[in-house]
Amino acid sequence: MQLIITDAWLIKSRAFHLSGSKLLLAILTASVALMLISAGLYHWVFLKGAREGWPVIGTLVRLVVKDEVAQQDRFMRENIEVMARKLGEMQAKLLQLESLGERVSGLAGVNPAEVKIRPGQGGKLIAGRDLTMLELEATLQELDLVAAQRTDLMTVLESRLFEQKIKKMMVPTQTPVPNANLGSMFGWRIDPITGRSALHTGLDFPATPGTPIFAAAGGVVVAQEYQAEYGNMIEVDHGNDLISRYAHTSKVLVKKGDLIKRGQKIAEVGNTGRSTGPHLHFEVLVQGIPQDPQKFLNAGRNLGATQLAQNKSAVPATSPSPQSELAGGASAQR
Fold first, then answer.
1. Which of 177, 239, 173, 171 is nearest to 212 (CA)?
2. How many folded domains does the chain comprise?
3. CATH number of the domain enclosing 274
């Protein structure tokens, strides 16, 4: 491309030869210069108009500021909604954790009110900077993870403690006839009918006919029948090859296959079968072998006060508590 410039005063002419690359460079340079000049003028006019309150410029400034404020407000609302959801989730998990803590503390024999006591805190105040939104969100996520882990741990502990409690409730440690004197003990004795030495395979609890008999532990009734030696007899399977037997009853309130609770009334004292007077014959068998029931009853009395209270909570309100002592004496024997 050739550009000719003519001077009318000096009557001179100049010719410039521009190649394609030079022409493109010149156009770009002119464009950049024009843009810079326009930006500078716009900036100067805009600032001057904003400072002096020109009507058009002032309106534009207010519109821009209003839009920025609206965007910031929308951004803050969105972040607040996200934080509110996270706080709601945290609150739900903390409530779940608190509920689990109360149940676990109850199973462990700890008073929940003592756990909730806020410990004393204090010390020198060293102020720190305010947390940013990202740091606050990261902190909430960390707390959420810790709460989830603690919930899982408490759930496992509750399951283990509940399993242990169930096992304890399935061991015959509650006296079947509360407030009754103890007759014949477990072991060898002179049989009251034959007068010969014989093994007494349980404990005798003399009582008036119709006295309630309570289950020494929870389990399943596996036998409810009449036998010549035991009379009206009930056998309860407590699991782990552990069975309790209640004999010489006058009235039976359960049947084979029933699921019974610890402390549930299952029969009444009688004088049926091979018996010299109204009493309950109580046996405990492990793998079919008779054991001394007194050992189980002593173990129940030696439990801590908290565990005893927990066991009583599983007994119906109409059922009396286990006797605290067994007095010696015998009036009726098997």
1. 177
2. 2
3. 2.70.70.10
Supply the pLDDT for residue 155: 75
Q: Which residue has the tokens 């004393």?
A: 120
146 found inside a domain: no
DSSP calls for 259-322: EE-TT-EEEEEB--SS-SSSEEEEEEEETTEEE-HHHHHHHHHTS-HHHHHHHHHTS-TTSPPP
Domain of residue 258, residue span: 187-313
Q: How far apart are CA 203 and CA 245, in angstroms?
A: 10
Q: pTM, whole model, 2 decimals?
A: 0.49
pLDDT tens digits for 65-114? 667 777 777 777 777 777 767 777 777 777 777 777 777 766 666 666 65
Residue 318 lies in a domain: no
Q: Is residue 287 part of a domain?
A: yes
CB atoms within 10 A of CB 90: 15
CB atoms within 10 A of CB 288: 7
Domain end point (choices 12, 33, 52):
52
Q: Name the one residue in this structure whose structure tokens are 């700890």.
A: 110
- Amino acid at site 323: Q
Chain segment 153-191, per-residue pLDDT in tens: 777 777 777 666 666 668 898 999 998 888 899 998 988
Residue at 176: amino acid letter: P
Residues 170, 259: Cα–Cα separation, whole Å: 12
169 assigned to some structural domain: no
